[in-house]
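Journal club side-thread
Mid-discussion, someone asked how the predicted structure for our own chain would compare to the paper's figures. Pasting it here so we can look after the session.
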Amino acid sequence: MLIEKVYLNNSELLYLQIYKIMERKITNNEIPIGKKIQPEKDLCKMFGVDFRTVGKALNKLVDEGYLIRRPSLGTFVVSTEPTKGIDLTIKNEIAVVYCPDVEKPIDIAYSNNNAISSRRYYQSIIDGIESKSSEKGMYLLYNIVKGDGLYIANKRKDIAGLIVLGGITPEILKMVKRAQIPFVLIGDVHQDEKVASVDVIGEDDFDSTYIATRYLIELGHKKILYINKFLEKYWWYKQQTDGYESALKEAGIPCDKSLEIEAKEMSADDRYLLIKDILGKGAQAPFTAMVGVGDASCIAAMKAIKEKNLRIPEDINIVLLGESSEITSATSVSSNLQNLGKKAVERLLERLTNPGSWKPGRVLVPNELHVGNTTAQIKS
């Protein structure tokens, strides 16, 4: 196979140059159907690029239906025309891949091909996945990442795509990419920066704290405690902190760093002692409202506030971030978790049926304010 040059000084990415060269040779029958593509190490030498660049070019040709990979045999040309999309009547299964999450541990049991989680957060997402998949005529199977494998080889021929959720690490993302099956992520990879060139369905972290804080400001509050597990460990924690601070700044309220609390890995009892210490021994509390991320901090705050003989919402308001199964009557800001699951299915099917127009990107499910009995207008 005569190989054309790629140009380092060209504004077009190297892998796209290689993709176009090989696509042209395939569509012109210079590389005929049934022909085995040379090993990647040989292509690297021919084009003068690394394995990753050649791999991305070949992956794109596979995704568009020109090539197919046969494990342990090689990569072969199977078509001279790009496919319009996967036939979902043949490949009609979606694999839901759960990655064990140290921050939101969960047990999954299997019964009649349904996943039942011990945590409402994931159960709501899975309910959305099941609802939309059923609507679209797709079947689901469930897989838990264990060790260094996905263990879906025996079902690979039937799987159209993957929906990955849970504690997604950079290592797991690499594992998923190696499977060579189209995928979407629910939630971000646990690392400092956003991951580019993948589909991510997520919650709007900045907007959640911004909505909660702005609502409390509209009720007349200026001293607002903000408590989260972390303030800046991963970029989405930073987004939440930025949302809180932005709402204050827009209202002309100085950011009091002493009211930004990082609970880290504290137990419920330790969070209670922390908030009790913040409330102090004086009659006047240092804050009149609180934005708390998750059940643990809000339950701890309620206990400490009650012991100080203060009332909710008359003396102190509380807004919970996220869905709660324990404080069902609280004012809260959350996204519809079922919609996360539904959006993931929609995005995956869009990629499968329209590969030519698909581009990876982020889809954020909007947050909603639910007014409960833990907030009230400050009386003048």
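Post-session note: The mean pLDDT is 87.
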